[in-house]
Every structure is written in C-alpha cells, then in structure tokens.
C-alpha cells in the first residue's frame, strides 16, 4: 500500500514553500523593474512607452513559456498584463518627470 505524499504535507510547510517562492518572484520583479526603467529612459515619447505591439509580443512569449513549464497560460497572461500595466505606469511617471 502506497502513501500519498501530499497527505504527509502540512499547510504550514506548503505556505513556507510559497513564501520562499514569493521572495524569489519579488527579487525578479525588482530586477525587471530596473531594466524597464532603463528602457523607459531610452524612449522618446509616451507612445514608445505604451508600445501595444510590444506588450502583445511579451504576452505571447510568456504564454508560450507557461505552456512549456506546465503553468496555466491564462494565469501567466493575467499576471503579466498586471505587471506590464504597472510597469508602463511607472515608466510614464518617470518619462513625465523628465
């Protein structure tokens, strides 16, 4: 008789694992944000900041990566749309501050 490994896990252990992943995600977002701000400083106008075609290119790439890694493409797309939207807002504030 085999034991289900999930049954031996505790909710606290699972939450600790999620918290550790969240720390890595936030570090990666910070790295990404630095590059986004660098890119923003190279753009000439707000149209280049918004770049809807580039947004869709990034979304499609992220969806493909999600599929390759066994993640839900819909969840990844939603997360990326939120991340990109917030990044665009940050870039626009930087751009307007000049």
Rg (C-alpha, Å): 18 Å
How many domain modules? Answer: 1
Helices and strands, in N-to-C order? HHHH
The CATH architecture can be given as Up-down Bundle
Q: Under CATH, the topology is which? A: Chorismate Mutase Domain, subunit A
Write the layout of secondary structure elements.
Layout: H1 11-42, H2 46-50, H3 52-69, H4 73-97
Helix pairs in contact: 1-4, 3-4
Features:
CM_dom_sf, Chorismate Mutase Domain, subunit A
Please outline what is shown here:
It holds the Pfam family CM_2. The protein is mainly α and 98 residues long. The chain has four helices and no strands.
Overview of the molecule:
- It contains four helices and no strands.
- Helix 1 packs across helix 4 and helix 3 packs antiparallel against helix 4.
- With 98 residues, the protein is mostly helical.
- The chain has one domain: Chorismate mutase (Chorismate Mutase Domain, subunit A), CATH 1.20.59.
- The mean pLDDT is 94.
- The longest helix is centred in the first third of the chain and has 32 residues.
- The protein is elongated.
